[in-house]
Design brief:
The complex is a heterodimer of chains A (about 350) and B (about 400). By secondary structure, chain A is mainly beta. Chain A has no helices and 32 strands. In chain B, helix 1 packs across helix 3 and helix 10 packs antiparallel against helix 11. The chains are: A mainly beta (about 350), B alpha/beta (about 400). Chains A and B meet through loops of A and helix 4 and helix 5 of B.
């Protein structure tokens, strides 16, 4: 699990659980509450200390009390928000379509700092030790101080970046729209190596067992050596892959635009199982204890047994482009593209 | 801005457009213009040589590349060759930049209308979109002056347009124009409250369809990139439908099975001043084509690799050629004609994913001919100059 302040990749860690430790496997059967927001929700909600944070395209970041769905506060950005928020200590970090990244006080909803940038920030800000890292569609990768937002460094790979960075002690890994998967020095942003896929790398990498694991629009899912940038294995799918992989127990899980949820061996890429097609999956799955859960674009949220791929439950509650459900021991929280947030048990 | 209301009057069956020489005598039956009263509230159309049907009325370049699909992927180099040679064939200009300079200037704000409304494999391909952006760059249009748009932001997102175009190009779903007050406030959404078509198709509550503010206020030129697809209501979704139903909102109300008012709504919408005058070039992506189950094309059995681009300035002539291509394919597989009126072939919406024999609507491909009546292009096949080009 992440530390209180480190949030090293999309939804905090490789399992894409958003830092939520335990998860119930049973199917939800009851609506606890729901909230209809002013516009679409593209990103994933995140949960901490009984508060659910949801970013909406109406430019607002909402904080809901999970026990009753009451709104605790809302923060109004100056543009639409497509970025999945991240949490670090007492801050919620989120990007917006005006190129800014803002740090919002978790308790009050008051903005502590804001960093300007170019393009739109659709990636999720990631945090390692004292720094925050993010890319933008304006072709920049930026590092700022976590406490103040002061600029540490900024590099310009000149390609649209929607891929959330994965940060380690020494390196940063992320993808670019021109097909580059890059490893940068964490302290300077200097390029260490680049692997070139033939199409865009939009998904956010996972890093496990010395491998950088990520799919591309070129129909391949790659495992690249984190040190050298050499491809260790790759697996071909039916169409492009933008779903960020979840990794747990030596298995890699990701969805394809071809509609399948794939389960591969992280060691060698061997296919363990593949779901029945769900038309298109672009959102990341979450890997919980014994099951995988994913939202498809055309309206279903489905849970599968990790080992066999057997479907455990499904809910038809609205589609998702990039949102991942939160499954805790008490409830399942879903944000759907039409802008409805559900709490189920 | 001077705005006028024009009415397509059901009782008179005539068209009061106030466009001088563009007013056409009423065509005899089967014109659909009298079948639905449509009030158009829009600025006056400014005649221009570039306005539809544009610089080359009746000319359709049908460019085929046998290697357009390689190992299931659309080949970027093949698309580049198709577009370069196709534009040369259309214009007669050997230099691609000269060909494109006939349609756009470096100072233009260019809106690019894609078609993302389909299964992921049968939308406007990113490869084609990239080549168009590159060609516009070569003319001097910077990325920041290009807007890729469609009505539905979720379909743009799921098909990767936002994430795969070059940095600086804007990608906008008209429903996502940032709206602090919510989508019901048309003044703050992506549509122009001053430009609309008003009609009551089936007693719906909201009878207005507004035109995108990108079209009315931002763009100076529109490049239209439709797909070569059958459509269960309009017959085909080509240049005309992609422009009309992707630029106006509240359009699904025009078809309630088995009846559809896509004819005359599609052609009337395309004749609205800003859309008609700014749409200067159409490039139809037929690399993968759909002969049944459109517009979504979920059943891959109904998708074929036609490996073609249709290029022209006349949307009517291009859609007419598209109609012939889809009809031919349907004949080959034994599917009913798009003109079929046999009630026994009506089915439920879900049937179209299962069998090419059923459809929920009596399709209205005649909307293409109606567009011709409105002066948007050439319907008569004998007058269409279709130039087939096979490139390698």
């Amino acid at each position: 699990m992440p530390s209180d302040t480190n949030w090293v990749t999309l939804l905090a860690s490789n399992d894409r659980r958003g830092g939520v430790a335990a998860a119930a496997r049973k199917p939800p059967t009851e609506l606890i509450w729901k909230a209809t927001l002013g516009d679409a929700v593209r990103s994933s909600p995140v949960l901490r200390d009984g508060v659910l944070y949801v970013a909406c395209r109406d430019g607002r970041l909402y904080a809901f009390d999970v026990s009753n769905g009451r709104e605790r506060w809302r923060y109004q950005a100056a543009a639409a928000i497509h970025s999945t928020p991240s949490i670090s200590g007492n801050l919620v970090l989120v990007g917006a379509d005006d190129g800014t990244v803002s740090a919002i006080d978790r308790a009050s909803g008051v903005r502590r700092w804001q960093v300007p940038g170019t393009g739109e920030v659709w990636a999720s800000p990631t945090v390692y030790d004292d720094d925050v890292y993010f890319g933008s569609t304006g072709g920049e990768i930026t590092a700022v101080d976590r406490a103040t937002g002061e600029l540490r460094w900024r590099v310009q790979p000149q390609a649209r970046i929607c891929s959330t960075a994965y940060v380690t002690d020494r390196r940063i890994f992320l993808g670019c729209s021109d097909g580059r998967l890059m490893a940068l020095e964490r302290g300077t942003g200097k390029e260490v190596w680049t692997h070139r896929a033939t199409e865009a790398v939009v998904a956010s990498p996972a890093v496990d067992g010395g491998l950088v694991l990520v799919g591309s629009e070129d129909y391949f899912f790659y495992a690249v050596d984190a040190e050298s940038g050499k491809v260790r294995w790759k697996v071909e799918t039916g169409l492009g892959v933008t779903s960020s992989a979840a990794v747990a127990g030596g298995k890699v899980f990701f969805g394809g635009r071809d509609g399948y949820l794939y389960a591969l061996s992280a060691a060698d890429g061997r296919e363990l199982w593949k779901s029945r097609p769900m038309r298109a999956i672009t959102a990341p799955p979450l890997a919980a204890d014994g099951f995988i859960c994913v939202q498809s674009f055309y309206g279903t949220t489905q849970a599968f047994e990790t080992d066999t791929g057997k479907e455990l439950w499904r809910a038809n509650l609205g589609g998702s482009v990039s949102s991942t459900p939160i499954v805790s021991t008490e409830a399942v929280y879903l944000a759907t593209y039409p802008g409805v947030v559900y709490a189920l048990r | 801005m001077d705005r006028r209301t024009f009415v397509y009057n059901a009782a008179l069956g005539t068209l009061h457009l106030g466009w001088g020489n563009l007013v056409r005598a009423q065509e005899p039956s089967p014109s659909a213009l009298g079948s639905l009263k449509i009030a158009v509230h829009a600025p006056e159309f400014t005649p221009s040589p570039l306005a539809m049907p544009g610089l080359f009325p009746g000319r359709v370049i049908d460019v085929v590349h046998p290697q357009a699909v390689q190992d299931r992927r659309i080949s970027q180099p093949a698309v580049r060759t198709m577009l370069t040679q196709g534009m040369a064939a259309l214009t007669g200009d050997k230099n691609p930049a000269d060909a494109w300079a006939r349609f756009v200037a470096p100072t233009d704000i260019v809106a690019i209308k894609v078609n993302p409304s389909s299964a992921p494999a049968t939308v406007t391909s990113i490869a084609l979109l990239r080549e168009v952006i590159s060609a516009l760059n070569a003319v001097g249009v910077p990325n920041r002056n290009m807007i890729v748009y469609d009505r539905n932001s979720n379909q743009l997102e799921v098909n990767g347009y936002h994430t795969q175009v070059p940095a600086g190009v804007r990608v906008i779903g008209l429903d996502q124009r940032w709206a602090v007050k919510g989508s019901s406030d048309v003044n703050r959404s992506g549509y122009d409250p001053e430009v609309y078509c008003e009609m009551d198709c089936f007693g719906e509550r909201e009878t207005r369809s507004y035109l995108a503010s990108i079209v009315t206020r931002e763009a100076t030129k529109i490049i239209n990139l439709p797909c070569l697809k059958e459509h269960n209501a309009s017959g085909v979704t080509g240049c005309l439908k992609n422009l009309a139903y992707g630029s106006f909102n509240n359009v699904a109300r025009t078809h309630v099975d088995p009846k559809t008012y896509t004819d005359p709504v599609i052609p009337v919408m395309c004749s609205v001043g800003p859309l008609r005058s700014k749409s200067v070039l159409h490039i139809m992506d037929g690399i993968r084509a759909v002969y049944h189950g459109g517009p979504f094309g979920w059943n891959p059995e109904f998708v074929w690799e036609a490996k073609t681009l249709l290029i022209g300035t006349d949307p009517v002539a291009m859609d007419r050629v598209e109609l012939e291509i889809v009809e031919q394919k349907r004949r080959e597989v034994g599917a009913p004609s798009l003109w079929d009126r046999n009630p026994a072939n009506l089915g439920r919406s879900s049937d179209i994913e299962r069998t090419a024999q059923k459809n929920p609507f009596y399709r209205e491909p005649n909307h293409i001919r109606t567009a011709s009546e409105l002066g948007l292009g050439v319907w008569d096949l004998a007058k269409i100059d279709r130039r087939k080009l096979v490139v390698n």
